[in-house]
Amino acid sequence: MDNNQNFNIANQPGLAQQPVAKTFIASVFSWMGIALGISAVTAYVFGTDATYMQYLINPATRGLSGLGYLVMFAPLGLVLLMSFGINRLSSTMLTGVFLIYSILMGMSLSFIFLAFTAASIYTVFISTAAMFGVMALIGYTTKTDLTKLGSLLIMALIGIIIAALINMFLRSDGLSYIISFISVIVFTGLTAYDVQKLKDISAQVENGTEASAKMSIMNALTLYLDFINLFLALLRLFGSRK
């Protein structure tokens, strides 16, 4: 009797899929954590050591060096490469690009140490981690379908990008503040939405395949970007400038 019950339980698709889903989600958050760790260490090393910073800023002109321009624009190119080349790149190559991206992002983020005090950077980083964790938990546990909210947030994100491009020419502190405030709301919401979407995806993956490995990296990239953008928005709002 007991053996039959155990057999029946083990063969229920929903229960059998749960370990696979949890493994996939754990893989996504692990890769996200690795990338954030690499970026954080790289940003700290370049941002707090003038010897490394001179590789990014030309000491003679006080402008960006060739490497400085590379780390400012290359991350966007790598995101596009991963997004559009996912079917052509192997999971190993995709992982390598993601790790290189995290290094370049860390070098790019090192410039915040020139504008903000180290203490405020650390405080905002911890606050961002707490907010991200709470919203990720909400996204994972809520029974509410966040699809419609996600669509609205993506539209708002497009508006933020357009406004930010306009403000590059206007250089308005007021507009910058508004953009940062809205960005906090958008990326806080997107964190919950992306984690719920990740949960839905995890129920459909076949663990250990090339496709699941690629999906793990791409979802890690999505959550990484949610975290970084939330952190930068909070830093612009609450960071103490030098």
Characterization of this structure:
By secondary structure, the protein is an all-alpha fold. The protein is 82% helix and 0% strand. The chain has one domain (2-238). The chain has ten helices and no strands. The chain is globular and about 55 Å long. The N and C termini lie far apart (72 Å).
Q: Can you give keywords for this protein?
A:
0% strand
Q: What is this entry, summarized?
A:
This protein is mainly alpha-helical and 242 residues long. The termini are far apart.
Radius of gyration: 20 Å
Extended strand count: 0
Q: Provide the β-strand percentage band.
A: under 5%
What is the overall number of helices?
A: 10
Helix percent reads over 70%
> Please, what is the average pLDDT?
91
The structural domain count equals 1
Cα-to-Cα separation, first versus last residue = 72 Å
Q: How are helices and strands ordered from N to C?
A: HHHHHHHHHH
Shape: globular
Task: Please describe the biggest sheet, giving its number of strands, its sense, and whether it closes into a barrel.
Answer: none
Record the SSE blueprint:
Layout: H1 2-10, H2 13-48, H3 50-53, H4 66-84, H5 91-109, H6 112-115, H7 118-141, H8 147-170, H9 173-202, H10 210-238
